[in-house]
Amino acid sequence: MYKFLIVLMFVLAPACFGLGSTGLPSEITNIQFQNVTQTSVDVVWTTVHPSTSQVLLSRDTNLYETYQLYPATADPSLVTSHRVTVNQLVPYNASTGDGQYYVYVASVSASGQMSTAPGPYNSNTGANPSISMRTLPTNLTGSPNTLVYTSGPTTAYTGHDTYFAVQPVLVSGPVGHLYIQNTGGYNNSTDGLVKQNSTPVSTVGVHYSCKQYNPTGADSADQWQDYTSKLGFCWMGNNYKFHSVRLRVPASATPGSYTVTLTLTSNGQKVLVTYPFKVVKTPTSVASVPKTTTAIPGLATWQTQMDTLGRKWCTYRDSYDAAGNFEGFGWEQDAWFYDGGRVFQQIDDYTANVLNQPNHAYWQHCSQAVLDPYAYYLVARNGAMGGWRIFPYGMTMNYWRTHNVTMMNAVNDLATVGTWSAVTGYVDPGYMREMSYISNAWMANTQLGYPVSPLLQRNIDMLLGMMIMTAEGTGSVGAEVHPFMVGLAAETLSRWYSFSVAAGNPDYRVVPVLKAALDTLWATNWQPQSGWMNYNRFTQPVSTVDASLLNNLNSQGYAWLWYMTGDDTERQHAYDLFSNAFHPAGYFYVSGKEFSQEFEFSFDTVRLLQNNGVSYTDQASNAFQGYWPVTTPPQPTNVNCNPTCTAGTIGSNQATLTWTTYVLASSQVVYGTTTAYGKQTALSDTSGVLSHAVTLTGLLSKTTYHFRAWSVDVAGNTSQTPDLTFTTQ
């Protein structure tokens, strides 16, 4: 390992870089990175007033979701010259992006005033400013030096698997594979030595896994095998991703303290990794006390805003569809984000069955406007969606209601051939969202009649482990308890509990694990003075309206705990979140993403608080209502001239225009030298295609043409692109 003492990567003057701060004016200056190595860095800054020191570190610019704190609790020393050592980093690798970090600093004065830099958070774009920092790359010519970091839950339940993370880090030396010492034979759960109170035990199996894509879930596919040495190994490369170690704890295991020691070897260097854990007995039932329902505070406001915002975003979705737009993510105000199809179907049921205000045709239309393009898009692309774009329940509910087979096929594609369908999961809180979503897809797919995914149990065990990490505070160095991730995982795990009950094998771990995690979340993140969860203590939006919109991502978890146990403290937490999750009267400046987040889980929150445990996502809540035709325009996308044209498609006297649609549709182009167009091509592809190409001939050279691409699907729904242009050569 080679180190440069006082290697100054960046000397940052906020004034020069336009990096402001929050809190006291001009309080933080001269942020620097010193003593940069492959695995650590000193973050240095100065303050005007004596204050505490803490560094926030993220793996991407989105500090809003995944970050770590160094130290976990701010150094209470009041100083003006600050230095925090950030460690357990990985070397920089340009090809993978490993070793690229983003830094934010915070100091609190003696008066309690917090200042942070850079800043402030931009609530309009959802962006958090941060400072780029890179570690040194691996010294490939040095002596072999491999480090191993570990993280994970330290509590294991009898009769279940528990996972912890192992992260190999090549500091120096040539790249070499990582070998796992199999003490009892390759891939038979003997990859480590387990002791209880210093006495070796053979009852707990240890299995090392470094293949993230394993469709069958078979142990034999979790490692590569070196047939000469008869050992398992992992392709090291120069990639510092988390591997996982499975602890198979039998039902007969004796509760108490344990350790597991792994022997790993790379380039002849032997690394011993010891991980402590404790075994506890799995409960055999859920302890519950009699429950008495009471009026839900804020229910009338929730009902009014559900209707008002629902209509607003249904109208927007219609206009978006008519304009030929489909993919809109992040803060782009698209109502299908966060399963808007599920939201609209829940509005349909609630307004008809609870409020006695049936408007089925309208709300079903709103749902279809969201679900049609999503489902058909998925089927056309074999379920290819990023993990944070997987929303299966709206389509599942719609299939039960309408028997639209495309909805069922889309869920099946997500669960069996989609991008995340073969991922074995990660013991990393940064992936709680993706693991929750694909677990939902696997469960929904089984609800539709398909076999259970062999990877579902793995993901559930890992999710439960990460919730234990939340409760224990044992995430990666100082990992922040994050309401967003915890809320998504809590909803998935409550659905899992129902799934396990239906399968005849109730997973009684879920209640105590969720209670411990959600109680920790409440103790660390609830802001009683403002009525919302603190999603980021340093870069929280100033507007309580924006912050409170996310309350209902967590209210369902507390409501479920009350429903399961009768614990009125948990119900009060649900009440506090739910009753503060609204806009002021007349304030409806909210994106479609926020609308869907606000209402996706809150319908189940209401049911649970009324002592009704049947989820809106269950088949019992979605009776067949009759076949419903596809009425959403086929939406041309991926136009080759939008806004600039793909090279080679435009000549001096002709132009080839291409686009795609999510359903089979015809092809036609209107065009001309003005927006009046005046010319059109012959209608082609009348049987319907997904990829469209139309060539225009007889054009004038060096002339700008306006055009729209048109498509009509087999049901007669017509769509067109916005006005676009190209210029001939």
Q: Outline of this structure?
A:
The chain has about 725 residues and is α+β, with helices and mostly antiparallel strands. It is about 30% helix and about 25% strand. It has 4 domains: about 120 residues, Sandwich (Immunoglobulin-like), CATH 2.60.40; about 140 residues, Immunoglobulin-like; about 325 residues, Alpha/alpha barrel (Glycosyltransferase); about 70 residues, Immunoglobulin-like.
Layout of strands and helices, then pairs:
Layout: E1 11-12, H1 14-17, E2 20-22, E3 28-34, E4 41-58, E5 68-86, E6 100-108, E7 114-119, E8 131-134, E9 145-151, E10 155-157, E11 161-172, E12 178-180, E13 193-196, E14 199-201, E15 205-209, E16 224-226, E17 231-234, E18 243-248, E19 256-266, E20 269-280, H2 299-322, H3 340-353, H4 360-380, H5 393-402, H6 405-416, H7 432-447, H8 456-472, H9 483-502, H10 510-525, E21 526-527, E22 532-533, H11 544-548, H12 552-565, H13 568-579, H14 592-600, H15 602-609, E23 655-672, E24 679-680, E25 684-696, E26 704-712, E27 718-720, E28 724-727
Parallel strand pairs: 10-20
Antiparallel strand pairs: 1-3, 2-7, 3-4, 4-5, 4-6, 6-7, 6-8, 9-11, 11-18, 12-17, 12-19, 13-14, 13-19, 15-18, 16-17, 19-20, 21-22, 23-24, 23-25, 23-26, 26-27, 26-28
Helix pairs in contact: 2-4, 3-4, 3-5, 3-14, 4-6, 5-6, 6-7, 7-8, 7-9, 8-9, 8-10, 9-10, 9-12, 10-12, 12-13, 12-15
